[in-house]
Amino acid sequence: EGVDTVIAGRPNVGKSTLMNLLAGCEKSIVTSYAGTTRDVVEDTVLLGGIPLRLADTAGLRDTSDPVEQLGVLRSRSRVEAAQLVLAVFDSSEPLREEDQQFIEMLGDTPAIAVINKNDLQSRIDNSYIQSKFKQIVYISALQGSGLKELQNAVQQVL
Length: 158
Ligand code: GDP
Ligand code: MG
Known about the structure:
Layout: E1 3-8, H1 15-23, E2 41-47, E3 50-56, H2 66-81, E4 84-90, H3 97-106, E5 111-116, H4 126-132, E6 135-138, H5 147-157
Parallel strand pairs: 1-3, 1-4, 4-5, 5-6
Antiparallel strand pairs: 2-3
Guanosine-5'-diphosphate binds at residues 11-17, 30-32, 36-37, 59, 116-117, 119-120, 140-142.
């Protein structure tokens, strides 16, 4: 039961911090090291009354670490099978090649651009994001802000 929802994006954008915020507890390990999340971490949450089966996934990147590679493979197949993707980006940095590759792999899957770290100075290319996503929300998973906007976007997409 619930909408199969995958939290995805390149490493370090705050996917696991968002997972924990939505789950209301420390489900996923959060560190400043890229490549922290490897296994898929799941939980069912209610967002604006809608049950979401959330999956927090390994950050998408090329890596020589064999364990992380397996995590990235799982992450990609989750994205491909998802009913909804929360596509997370770091607003404090310009988009990277890995962000662009991730956007291209989304195809027709319903997705919401979740621009995280909104508490920091913005350096992201907003016009590029706007050209790729119909739904865009700005949040700070660290501070817990923007959840209402995310809730509205989920209601609109589904
Ligand atoms: P993931 O690799 O995408 O799962 O990212 P994490 O959730 O592990 O977070 C990576 C780093 O970014 C950690 O040091 C977090 O504390 C930090 N971080 C996550 N969300 C925010 C945010 O909204 N604002 C700021 N300033 N830092 C954040
Ligand atoms: Mg993580």
